[in-house]
């Protein structure tokens, strides 16, 4: 684990869970798997504090435990899972895009709490949606539970592993820590619950205090509420399914950028003796990308997250699943599939001839795009692509093939060499490695370049987070004052105060302070947007590295 990753993980844990959890998590990240006794000694915290921090981390799947054959239970931090916290806003926004407000809030609640029972998640989301509605309107539980079921059917959420049932007759000593497991067939099975009810609005402060006193009194008297019908069945967000969706969207976008206009021109001019009566101009709507999107949608649940290709689909199945608005004939579809299969980038591959031909979508990343075009310019990008294609070239060959003057080519190669984007390999003719009798070949170590860029992205995100924290610390007093004024205004509006009174309270924040607040909000918004953009680059690089390692 690099220092940049360790620093970013520590910042994420501190921002989302506080100093104590960050201290425990940082200790596990630095030292590896450790038992509770060594964790207490290393962190200098009280045993109860370490236990509670571990409970929080395990609840959010950021730490896993393992029972050793001889010895205590050891805890291990999941650094990859901690780094996924950075992608939480993207998960939530994707759920909102696909399933609306109920889907957004369901995913947000599950990410916020780690895992929840279905009944609890539905009730929380219904209450939150009711708060945003007009007076007199409420959100029904059945609508939210329907969205929950759709999220489970498309595998965006899944059940958490549970403790297997042990027969009462079997006398087995209980292990130091339970081993959790779940059958694959039960992972996405939604329990049949009759959730009847509507969302509730928050009460006034007096009613809330009265409700809290009632709850405490009931707890003291031992009167607990009824056990929920799905007690013991917990759900969590399936992050790999979201990553599969992001990857599919990237594939569709790549096909649209490369193939659509080419396919449209080709079909118009090369469709036999007469052109097909297509309902679009020479450069049509994005049909190639729609074909690939349809294939990915058909196999989104049946394709494993680590698979290199989707499940084979026949041409007839693809034709029947295409959206009705495109009006694509079977013959036109076959030509599009043929062009996609013949493309050098191999977005689509043909795996058989049954059913009009069977096709798969290749999920592996096949190419590495030059990452420093803005920093180094288009000529460096040309040299980089040339080295990718030719593998090994001398400096003179680079000058000739790239058609760049010798002085400029030499300067560009050395700049990229200093940034580790290209590497230099020596091939001596004699054992003494004399420079006059040695070939110096430039090449691109793609994996090393990708890992270097990934390291820089982690460092960039950590810098952005520290900058945002600095901005918040510098303006802490002003933010607290703004929050107090907003709270006073809200309470006065609830009691029906006059406009003059409200205006007088608003003037507690002066003009310069208001300008400072606006500048702060603008700067924090830019930092948040930059974090999301860097995370998109991180996802592309991680996907490339993962697919390259798995590539046969």
TrEMBL record:
Cell compartment(s), UniProt: Nucleus
Keyword field: DNA-directed RNA polymerase, Nucleus, Transcription
The organism of origin for this protein: Elachura formosa (spotted wren-babbler)
Assembly, per entry: Component of the RNA polymerase III (Pol III) complex consisting of 17 subunits.
A GO molecular function held by the record: single-stranded DNA binding
GO aspect biological process, one term: DNA-templated transcription
Reported function: DNA-dependent RNA polymerase catalyzes the transcription of DNA into RNA using the four ribonucleoside triphosphates as substrates. Specific core component of RNA polymerase III which synthesizes small RNAs, such as 5S rRNA and tRNAs.
Similarity comment text for this entry: Belongs to the eukaryotic RPC3/POLR3C RNA polymerase subunit family.
Protein name (Swiss-Prot/TrEMBL): DNA-directed RNA polymerase III subunit RPC3
Region: Disordered, residue numbers: 199-230
Residues annotated as domain DNA-directed RNA polymerase III subunit RPC3 winged-helix: 373-444
GO CC, alphabetical: RNA polymerase III complex
Domain RNA polymerase III subunit RPC82-related helix-turn-helix: 8-65
Gene: Polr3c
Domain RNA polymerase III Rpc82 C -terminal: 147-264, 287-361
InterPro entries attached to this UniProt entry: POLR3C_WHD (IPR055207), RNA_pol_III_RPC82-rel_HTH (IPR013197), RNA_pol_III_Rpc82_C (IPR008806), RPC3 (IPR039748), WH-like_DNA-bd_sf (IPR036388)
Top-level taxon in the UniProt lineage: Eukaryota
């Amino acid at each position: 684990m690099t220092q940049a990753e360790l620093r970013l993980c520590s910042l994420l844990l501190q921002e989302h869970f506080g100093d104590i959890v960050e201290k425990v998590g940082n200790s596990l990240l630095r030292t590896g798997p450790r038992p509770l006794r060594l964790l207490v000694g290393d962190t200098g915290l009280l045993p109860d504090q370490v236990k509670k921090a571990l409970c929080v981390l395990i609840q959010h799947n950021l730490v896993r435990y393992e029972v050793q054959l001889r010895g205590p239970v050891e805890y291990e931090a999941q650094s990859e899972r901690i780094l996924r916290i950075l992608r939480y806003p993207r998960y939530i926004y994707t759920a909102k895009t696909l399933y609306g407000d109920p889907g957004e809030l369901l995913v947000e609640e599950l990410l916020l709490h780690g895992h929840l029972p279905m009944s609890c998640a539905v009730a929380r989301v219904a209450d939150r949606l009711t708060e945003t509605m007009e007076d007199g309107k409420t959100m029904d539980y059945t609508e939210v539970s329907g969205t929950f079921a759709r999220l489970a059917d498309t595998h965006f959420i899944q059940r958490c592993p549970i403790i297997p049932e042990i027969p009462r007759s079997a006398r087995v000593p209980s292990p130091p820590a339970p081993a959790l497991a779940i059958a694959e067939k039960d992972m996405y099975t939604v329990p049949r619950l009759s959730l009847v009810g509507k969302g509730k609005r928050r009460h006034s402060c007096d009613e809330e205090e009265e409700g809290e006193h009632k709850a405490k009194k009931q707890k003291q008297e031992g009167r607990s509420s009824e056990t929920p019908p799905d007690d013991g069945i917990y759900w969590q967000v399936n992050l790999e399914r979201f990553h599969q969706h992001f990857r599919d969207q990237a594939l569709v976008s790549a096909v649209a950028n490369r193939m659509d206009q080419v396919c449209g021109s080709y079909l118009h001019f090369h469709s036999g003796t007469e052109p097909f009566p297509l309902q679009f101009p020479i450069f049509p709507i994005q049909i190639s990308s729609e074909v690939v999107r349809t294939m990915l949608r058909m196999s989104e649940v049946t394709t494993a997250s680590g698979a290199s290709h989707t499940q084979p689909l026949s041409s007839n199945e693809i034709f029947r699943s295409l959206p009705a608005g495109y009006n694509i004939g079977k013959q036109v579809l076959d030509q599009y599939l043929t062009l996609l299969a013949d493309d050098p980038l191999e977005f689509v591959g043909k795996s058989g001839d049954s059913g009009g031909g069977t096709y798969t979508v290749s999920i592996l990343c096949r190419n590495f795009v030059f990452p420093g075009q803005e920093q180094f310019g288009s000529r460096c990008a040309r040299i980089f692509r040339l080295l990718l294609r030719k593998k090994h070239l001398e400096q003179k060959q680079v000058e000739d093939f790239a058609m760049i003057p010798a002085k400029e080519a030499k300067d560009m190669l050395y700049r990229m060499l200093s940034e580790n984007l290209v590497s230099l390999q020596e091939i001596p003719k004699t054992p003494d490695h004399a420079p006059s009798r040695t070939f110096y070949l430039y090449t691109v170590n793609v994996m090393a370049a990708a890992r270097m860029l990934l390291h820089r992205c982690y460092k960039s995100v950590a810098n952005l987070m520290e900058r945002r924290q600095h901005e918040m610390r510098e303006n802490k007093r002003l933010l607290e004052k703004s929050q107090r004024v907003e709270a006073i205004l809200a309470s006065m509006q609830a009691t029906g105060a006059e406009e003059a009174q409200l205006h007088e309270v608003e003037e507690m924040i002066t003009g310069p302070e208001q300008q400072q607040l606006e500048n702060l909000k603008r700067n924090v918004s830019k930092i948040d947007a930059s974090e999301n953009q860097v995370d998109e680059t991180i996802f592309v690089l991680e996907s490339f590295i993962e697919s390259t390692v798995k590539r046969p």
